[in-house]
Amino acid sequence: MMLFALLKKDFLIVKKYVLIMLVVIALIPPVMRWRTPEFTGVFGFILSVIFGVFMLLQYVSLKEYQFPKAATLLCATPFSRKAIVSSKYIFCMAIYAICCIVFELETLFMPGLGTSDIKLFAFMFLIVSVFIGIYLPIQYKFGYEKTKFAFGVIIMASPFILPLLMRAGNLNLNFLSMFSPYLVYGGIVLIGFAILAISASLSIKIYDKSRLGVIKKEGETMDRDTIFLYVIAVIASCFGLINCSELPIV
């Protein structure tokens, strides 16, 4: 219940951009299919996932950075820091699932994009898990301001770097044919989940050590009455008495 409320909070933050990102996610595969026809729609799918997951995650992080008191108020509610951190990972995986659904629908109406299968989704899940597994602990450690430029460069450079890597890729994975496809893809997904679990555990430890008790902004300190009212509002939202979108961003 609490994770769902936190997940809903993140989607409410990006609600103005969800439709735009859905359009972008849908347009990237056919555009990249035209630009790099040798990779069918695989390259476009990879790029759409990178843009969809990281751009929306960056926007959530930006809003949290712009309103630092919100994190303090959230930690003063019944939501644990473990749940707050875990919701970020679930948010990223939810965006990835949406990208998979959009690409699956596109391949039905545009055969030129190729076919989507469990192999593609499993390998991409592993790639996303690695990126998220590295990104979130670093962001929790150093903050949004110090990490936004490095990962912004990665996002902007990916349309140029990925084709070069895919053309230069010469890994021989024929040995995997010795095993059952379900065993191979299941193992890949389990490795992805293991990376996310280790990363989440590290992020939780970092976030637990962060000091959010008092946040100063232009000489101001957090008001206890504001915390109390926010706690009451969040508890009420958990029981469905009010809408989460009605909670104030301080």
Give structural notes:
This protein has 250 residues and is mainly alpha-helical. The protein has one domain (1-165, 178-210, 224-241). Helices cover 76% and strands 0% of the residues. It is built from nine helices and no strands. The chain has helices at residues 2-13, 15-35, 42-66, 68-75, 81-109, 118-142, 144-168, 181-209, 224-238. α2 packs antiparallel against α3 (42-66), α3 (42-66) runs antiparallel to α5 and α6 packs antiparallel against α7. The longest helix has 29 residues, at 81-109. It is globular. The model is unreliable at 213-232 and 241-250 (pLDDT under 50).
Please write out the topology:
Elements: H1 2-13, H2 15-35, H3 42-66, H4 68-75, H5 81-109, H6 118-142, H7 144-168, H8 181-209, H9 224-238
Helix pairs in contact: 1-5, 2-3, 2-5, 3-5, 3-7, 5-6, 5-8, 6-7, 6-8
Query: What is the element string, with H for helices and E for strands?
Result: HHHHHHHHH
Proportion of residues in β-strands:
under 5%
Helix content: over 70%
Structural class: mainly alpha
Measured between the Cα atoms of the first and last residue, the distance is: 23 Å
- Mean pLDDT over all positions: 76
Overall structural domain count: 1
Overall body shape: globular
Largest sheet: none
Return Rg in Å. Answer: 20 Å
Oligomer: single chain
Q: Helix count?
A: 9
**Low-confidence sequence ranges:** 213-232, 241-250
Quick one: how many beta strands? 0
